[in-house]
């Protein structure tokens, strides 16, 4: 993997100031997205926990989700809204891609965005009242970037006209993807201090998030012909919401 990969990933997926020369390519974006997720998840979790202790679980949840939006420039949320507009109404492939490329957000996008954020906040608020809620949030953010990395696996189709999709196509090997999944599993075990019950439930919620992203990916492939940058962002937000939802039920 490229030595500048983490910087390339941070340059596109966060607001962190990265030297232009060190992030001149997008080839390292998806392979290192889980690492970026670990960093973002750690910051978001810290803010959420502080907000919970100083104010309330609801305030902590709002602050945690808000800081993620700020640190990512709202890029993934924008992708979620655009993807909802493209996949929502019954329209042909070319028209759907055209709608997604427009700068405005339609009614499908607005409704999807609002409901997804409400779901994330409600679930995180409930999780912050449990002993392992902080770890559930951290893992959800990281798993979301793992779901995005999935779009770089060999054989994943790219929608026509997607410049980002073309740049990152085939940049993630199956072994690399499995390695990151193993790292996440190990962190869950370590975070729960070896307690198998919470670790298994958190792993199950992560799997549910990846399955939700897979459903979205298959829908995008059928309607759009493959993934786009917007679809990658939508998969990330969908994974976060699904992971938090299942974790809130399981913990």
UniProtKB/TrEMBL annotation:
One of its GO terms (biological process) is cobalamin biosynthetic process. Keywords: Cell membrane, Cobalamin biosynthesis, Magnesium, Membrane, Transferase, Transmembrane, Transmembrane helix. One of its GO terms (cellular component) is plasma membrane. Its main location: membrane. Its cofactor is Mg(2+). Its EC number is 2.7.8.26. The keyword Ubl conjugation does not apply. The chain crosses the membrane at residues 54-71, 105-128, 134-153, 174-193. It is a multi-pass membrane protein. Joins adenosylcobinamide-GDP and alpha-ribazole to generate adenosylcobalamin (Ado-cobalamin). Also synthesizes adenosylcobalamin 5'-phosphate from adenosylcobinamide-GDP and alpha-ribazole 5'-phosphate. One of its GO terms (molecular function) is cobalamin 5'-phosphate synthase activity. It is found in: Cell membrane. HAMAP family: CobS (MF_00719). It catalyses: alpha-ribazole 5'-phosphate + adenosylcob(III)inamide-GDP = adenosylcob(III)alamin 5'-phosphate + GMP + H(+); alpha-ribazole + adenosylcob(III)inamide-GDP = adenosylcob(III)alamin + GMP + H(+). The keyword Magnesium applies. Pathway: Cofactor biosynthesis; adenosylcobalamin biosynthesis; adenosylcobalamin from cob(II)yrinate a,c-diamide: step 7/7. Belongs to the CobS family. This is Adenosylcobinamide-GDP ribazoletransferase.
